[in-house]
Amino acid sequence: MSRLSKKIKDTDYLAISARIKAMETGLLSRERMEQILEARSDEEAVKILQECGYPELNPKDPEAMDEALSAAREATLSDLAGGAPDPRYIDIFKLKYDYHNVKAILKAEAMNTSADRMLMDMGRVPATELKEAVQTGRTENLPAGLAAAAAEAKETLDTTRDPQLSDIVLDRWCYQEMAGVAETTGSAFLAGYVRIQIDATNLRALVRTLRMGKSTDFLRTVLLSGGEIDADAVLAAGMSGGSGLAELYGPTGLQAAAEAGAEALRGGSMTEFEKLCDDAVSDYLGGAQFVPFGEAPLLGYLAARETEYTNIRILLMGRSAGLPAEVIRSRLRAGYV
Description:
The chain has 337 residues and is an all-alpha fold. Helices cover 66% and strands 0% of the residues. It is globular, with a radius of gyration of 20 Å.
């Protein structure tokens, strides 16, 4: 009998939930990030991270650093996969890399270059297998949604020669697949996680579209369905130049981000706006800390690690570039601890 052929209960997560509670103590705290920020040298900053279990990271070689962080991410997913009663909660963090890879493969093919340097081997499908499947069109062994997405995106790119439109197709399929996973698992927590990501994506699309002076017809093509805020309501806000954003997103966790978005439309900081969109998703996931067991602690911890990798890159690259500490600090995403 497969693990998914019988109903999985919250209590099936007792063991992994207890393990995650212990692992949470190893997440980078705000205090530890301050130590990295205030370190006297880049070498000292890297040493602090090594004491936290990370490999030696070299901010002067961003590509190698990204590879090391990718390996750490993959190790975390692999480590927890064995103890997760339902593997779909691991897959939800892998599938976005499949879609990233399809984007890279199609763009490289259109430009007659190699995609290898852009591929990230952290998805459900090994990057080399995915590359061969997309390039040959033999996608029958891929997950069904991914195969359909790749075919539609390739057709869009071949027809329009516009990689942005191809990316839009893949983003829509990606979130559609995430929503499908949430529905099939029956997890209200996962469904909420997908909804707030869609809301954040639509809010970003609205602000970016207006900032770039693009048409509301373009906005209509990029908005996703399935969020707490209906896509038509977001489109209407776009048609009015973004007025009433704070009120529209007031019932959601994105109110502060929407206020920053309205400010960005008046010439304010896009960096602060982007950060607050990410922080809203982190705030939602932070609720997992108060759930004793079940899938929520697993999802919350994996997402916290994703945020941590982002913050490590911001810290090390910011220091290496000689940015003032207050500038780096303002860009750090809200953590889990």
